[in-house]
Specification:
Layout (H helix, E strand, L loop, with lengths): L2 E2 L2 E5 L6 H11 L10 E4 L2 E2 L4 H12 L5 E14 L2 E9 L2 H13 L17 E7 L2 H14 L3 E5 L1 E6 L9 E7 L7
Helix pairs in contact: 2-3
Length: about 180
């Protein structure tokens, strides 16, 4: 199955907790228009023409994982180059996301891109980009952290999302795969 940056398997938090996340993203995230709040599990993922073959495989994996709870309470960052960072909320605990990711990579080994970073797969929910020196970044994160109220939610499904080429390049949900269920959604 061919992979593409036009699709992904993600955890999408429930809409009821989007407002504070989106408030940050609208201010700091240049990708706010393209992506909904999400935690990548596999990205890039398989091309849309392979969805009929991929969906039963995804269901087989998600059926083996019970729903789990996450908290978004702590900010962190990735350094891309000197002075360039991505800010994100750390989903905690991250062990269920890591286990789900590992199980899906076993089924879709060509979609292991998120494992190739120096730190390996790091579950995260991006909220923005930052340019500046590390001291300014730390002060900025400290300010965000002081005002942030932790968000808690249950992860009971995984979403398959896709986008088109510009101008139709906003990710949309194709379908959801319930965790812990063998019946198709």
């Amino acid at each position: 199955m061919r992979k593409t940056h036009h699709t992904a398997l993600v955890v999408v938090p429930p809409r009821r907790i989007w407002p504070p996340i989106q408030a940050l993203r609208e201010r700091y995230d240049r990708q706010v228009r393209r992506w909904m709040p999400h935690i990548n599990v596999l990205y890039p993922f398989v091309a849309p023409e392979d969805f009929p073959r991929a969906m039963p495989l995804i269901r087989g994996v998600t059926a083996a994982f019970p729903p789990f709870r996450l908290q978004l309470a702590r900010f962190a960052w990735f350094r891309h180059s000197p002075g360039h960072y991505t800010l994100w909320l750390a989903p905690e605990p991250d062990a269920p996301l890591r286990a789900l990711h590992r199980a899906l990579v076993q089924v879709f080994p060509q979609c292991d891109d998120l494992d190739r970073f120096p730190q390996g797969y790091t579950p995260h929910l991006s909220v923005g980009q930052f340019r500046g020196d590390p001291n300014a970044l730390q002060r900025f994160v400290n300010r965000l952290q002081r005002r942030w109220q932790p968000l808690r939610f249950e992860v009971d499904s995984l979403a398959l999302i896709r986008r088109g080429d510009p101008p139709r390049d906003v990710f949309r949900e194709v379908c959801r795969f319930s965790l812990g269920r063998t019946v198709a959604p």
